[in-house]
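JOB MANIFEST
job_type = single_chain_structure
chain_count = 1
residues = 723
[input]
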Amino acid sequence: MKNYSIFKKSVSIIIVLALLLGLGIESISAYGDGAFDAYGVTLDHRSISFSIMGAESAQPASVTIDLATNNEFNDNNQKDSSSATHIEMSFEITSPNQEINLTFPEGQYLESKLYYTVKITDSNSKIIYEEDESFYSHSLFCSDTIFQSTGGVVTSVDENVSAASVFIGFTEYKGTKSGDNFYFSYPEQAAGNEILIALYDEYGCKEEYRKEIEDKIDTINADIDISASYVCADNAYAYLTADKDLKYRLCATISDNVYYGDYVQGKGSSGSVKLKVSYPAQKPSIEVTLVIESEYGAKSSEFKRKVYNRPYKIKVQNTRTTGLTAYLYDSKKETVYKKISKATLTFKNKEYNGKLNSSKYKFTYSANVGDSVKLKFVDTDGYTYTKSLKIPQGDGKLELLKCNADGAVFRFRSNYSKIKSITFLANNKKCKVKNYTKSDYNDDKYSDFCEYNKSFKYDTDWIYKKADYTVKYNKKIKLTLKTKDRYVYTKNAKAEYIKPYLNVDNIYSDDNSVFGATDNKLKVTIKVGKKNYTAKSNKYGYFNKKIKPAKSGTKVKITAFNKLTGCKATVNKKIKIRKGSIKFNSTIYKTNSSVKVTYTNARKGDKIKLIANGESYYVPIIKNKKKTVFTFPTGQMPAGAKLKLYYTDKFGTKKASVKTTTVLFSKNIYKGMPARYCELTTWGRATNKVSYDDYHAWMFERGGAFLCAYIHNGVVTNIGKDY
């Protein structure tokens, strides 16, 4: 801005050294603010100031002021005072050195003219001081001006300026004062047009300046913080560090439509200001052209932005019938967005203000499940976020763990709701509900808990309940649970077809009964092959039904039926062979006259058969025994004879594999024994046989020991050991 200096001209120094009648005055000195020379007179619009120095005695005196209206001279080169302002004032000299301050009479004041005459006379009207000098009274000034096409400002005016106007042609436009500045508005003007600026004081004195209309040059662009500018769906804003003496606004152009924001006063070096403009809501990615404009027409360069798809969303927590908590968060960063200017909730046409607590807003109301509420958040940028929702069931959780035809178990958990009432209907009949525990449920072998909830982790917050009833499976079940804060939880189901518990022991061919366990007092049917049997479980659930033994492999079908619920369980089995074992009790030699065998798990009706040297021997089992030793009286048998043992049940099915052995000749190999019996001893078979014409050498091995039998003519002739 262009600066204008303060112009104030002082009067010249006059030193008067004269001896006057009755008065000795050495000099008249300047009086004022120290800006003048050592001696002189100071004139203002309403006053005159000077000093009397060297007066000898007290006496009346007077001062006369003639102020010319112009700087023209007459033919005698004298100042023309024909239209001068004439002021005369008297005063009293009371001391040798005296400061004189005289105020003009009411209605008299001086304008800023070019020449004045000051006369000071004594009481005898003798002139003791007279001076003609060019003069300016206090000038009216300003430090700078800005005038552009539609307006301007005069800044930092003198404190004596009380009014300001500009003249464009013959038309006057008065300024509006704000602080030390005057602001002007006028019709659009072309750059270079000249205007006249007039400053006035309270006495009507004025100073005039001339100024040309400036071109609309870009004087704002460098101060815009474009990086902090945003274009939202229905508004845009930008930050500007601007002259504190001017006002600025943000303008937005969308599809040839221009929208203007409000003017905001600049802050100068003390900080940036936020400029905002609103417009109809736009879709994301719509391009908006922004420009910043001063109140007097200066514009920034255009900068373009696309409507920003703001990532912020309203997140709701703890939605209850009595209230909820909500906050605005960044959906991309999952961080709480704290800059909220207003948060409200509307419910049944009534608005509730949110109470801020750690960046979250809490709303309190009284509603029912299913009622609708609407949240509205307004951030500090003026952007509005809304969310509508219905009051849900809260955080309570109701689960039917089992729902059989003969009873149900359920559980409920909530962080804050307490149970008010529970209604359990099975086939439209109200059932009694009683307390239950997870341990009870887990220990109940008929509950199927372990089957259906293998991954269940017990939580002490769960409340367990049990309903006892008996209905046919597939009948309707309805569970209704109400809490004290008006929440309602329901579960609808059908009685499940849950098989009765049924476990049956293995059935063997030598069994004459079927034993098992099921639910108490149930009808049990047993089909063995083509024969049918009927039984009933006792109060503990056990049953034991006599049957006729059947051959292994025979199919058996056992069914337990609950007449009240219509549910049944079936187990299919096959009759098994009860395995046993049998063996020869010791090595048999040709000298033995009997054979001992050991057998286990013998049951009445089993059979043991021995075939020895072509003869068959039988032993019938008449008594159940775990282990038995039996002797077959066979008489002596030849070496090399084969023996076989058979062990079967009463139906001839093997209970153990067939066992075989051979009758041995002796324990040792010795001289003179026939060579054909050498391998029918405990030495076992020969590992090597060597022949030399009619001589043979057979090598035997047993446990690391060696034996060599020399054979000639079919007889052992010699024995050699430890080869």
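[summary]
The longest strand covers residues 59-67.
The helical segments are 438-443, 449-452.
exit_status = 0
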